[in-house]
Automatic annotation (TrEMBL):
Pfam families the record matches: MRJP (PF03022)
Organism: Acanthoscelides obtectus (Bean weevil)
InterPro entries: 6-blade_b-propeller_TolB-like, MRJP/yellow-related
Compartment annotation: Secreted
Keyword Acyltransferase carried by entry: no
A cellular component annotation (GO) from this entry: extracellular region
Signal peptide (from-to): 1-20
UniProt-listed Gene3D superfamilies: TolB, C-terminal domain (2.120.10.30)
Similarity comment: Belongs to the major royal jelly protein family.
Keywords for this protein: Secreted, Signal
Protein name: Protein yellow
Length: 428
């Protein structure tokens, strides 16, 4: 009876045109500039003196959660990045907590010329992925000072950590055929596996510059590269304005989100280029089977899901398994949107769950933790790249909101779908 009452209430709101999200996300962290948990004040002063730490050059980009740790990546866009892979202990954190290097300070230091780097060496990471087997996967680009004098410190590699021991389980160097010359740029990694089948994991690594996806099989310790027209950017959607900064990007396939597995353990893999408003999909079987994945005749296995609407360019996306709602960043709309994948992808089925023209400028990354909280990071990156951030204002923020609260009253809410069905029935 209570459920029917709620359905009727939502239906009434819809018919009056007032259905909206009911909550604002909690601002959990905010920084003017990033600080780090240095071993000592002397160590920090020495790093500043040597140019190893230039405070304004450290921009947070990726987030992921595991138990009481919130991982935060800081790519080496410019010189002076103190540590690329970091975390915050949520049990002791304050609103402007310093970042602690993971797994250690030593692992995040740039090696000296001629120095043999350790196995857990991390040069520059954009995003990470925590799987259900308590492993942290990172796509180590090995590239430093990207916007200044870029140099390849170490080969691109997948590095997998055991989060219970903080030890490296495996370091896999991408093969030359996985990389498309100087065009390749790896800024994301997503891991596909079934519960309890940790050794059968597959990693999907989009190449936004080389317009391909690299697939890695943990069991076979092997990788292969896939190409498809849907991995390319849309030339009509590369002109963007964010936070008053106009720029043109040609980023191809970027965000990947995994649907729920079917009885065979396969799932829908949703993906999109960044410079695009479209969403595409393919069954994971077409990626995990190397022969099929690299067969040109598999082209038609890829599908067009639809469009998110005007100015809806997206970096990251993720799906809540319980509701099958996809969340995706909205770079030009200063926020995060949602789409229930059980409905057709069209603008009327897309809802904004968070939007703030000041605090959410360039919502760069999102993740959902094991308690079904949606985390969002905004970092004003276009201003960081093309202008200069004001150190006297808050530039970086991390928000949190429960998934069910985020979608309430939006077209993504399952109750919304029920109320729409009821409304249509009343109109017959």
């Amino acid at each position: 009876m209570k459920q029917m009452t709620l359905v009727l209430a939502i239906a009434a709101a819809l018919m009056s045109g007032t259905a909206t999200a009911l909550v604002q996300p909690e601002e959990v962290f905010s920084w003017q500039e990033l600080d780090f948990a240095w071993p000592s004040k002397e160590a920090e002063d020495e790093a500043v003196k040597n140019g190893e730490y230039i405070r304004e050059n450290n921009l947070p980009l990726g987030i992921d959660a595991w138990k009481d740790k919130l991982f935060i990546t800081v790519p080496r866009w410019k010189a002076g990045v103190a540590s690329s892979l970091n975390y915050i202990d949520l049990r002791t954190a304050n609103k402007s907590s310093p970042l602690t290097p993971y797994p250690s300070w030593e692992a995040n230091k740039l090696p000296k010329q001629g120095q043999q780097p350790p196995e857990n060496q991390i040069v520059s990471v954009f995003r990470s992925f925590v799987d259900t087997c308590d492993r942290l996967w990172v796509m180590e680009t090995g590239l430093a000072d990207i916007l200044g004098s870029p140099h390849q410190v170490s080969p691109p590699a997948i590095v997998i950590f055991d989060l219970n021991t903080d030890k490296v389980l495996r370091r896999y160097l991408l093969k030359p055929e996985d990389i498309k010359g100087d065009d390749s740029f790896f800024a994301n990694i997503v891991v596909d596996l079934q519960p309890g089948r940790c050794d059968e994991a597959f990693a999907y690594i989009p190449d936004l510059g080389g317009y391909g996806i690299v697939v890695y099989s943990f069991k076979d310790d092997d990788s292969w590269r896939i190409k498809h027209n849907f991995f390319h950017f849309d030339p009509l959607q590369g002109d963007m304005t964010v936070g008053g900064v106009n720029f043109q990007w040609t980023d191809g396939v970027f965000g990947i989100a995994l649907g729920n597995p079917n009885e065979n353990g396969d799932r829908t893999v949703y993906f999109h280029p960044l410079a695009s408003t479209m969403e595409f999909s393919v069954n994971s079987h077409a990626l995990k089977n190397r022969t099929l994945a690299t067969d040109p005749h598999s082209y038609d296995l890829y599908k067009i899901e639809g469009t998110k609407g005007p100015n809806s360019q997206t970096s990251e996306s993720t799906i809540d398994p319980k509701t099958e709602v996809m969340f995706f960043t909205q770079l030009q709309k200063d926020g995060t949107a949602c789409w229930n994948v059980k409905t057709p992808l069209e603008p009327s089925n897309v809802g904004m769950v968070a939007e703030d023209t000041e605090r959410m400028i360039f919502t760069n990354d999102i993740t959902i933790d094991s308690d079904r909280n949606l985390w969002m990071l905004s970092d004003r990156m276009p201003e960081f790249i093309y202008r200069r951030l004001d150190p006297n204002q808050i530039n970086y923020r991390i928000f949190k909101v429960p998934v069910d609260e985020a979608i309430r009253g939006t077209p993504c809410d399952p109750m919304y779908q029920q109320s729409t069905t009821l409304r249509n029935a009343q109109q017959l």
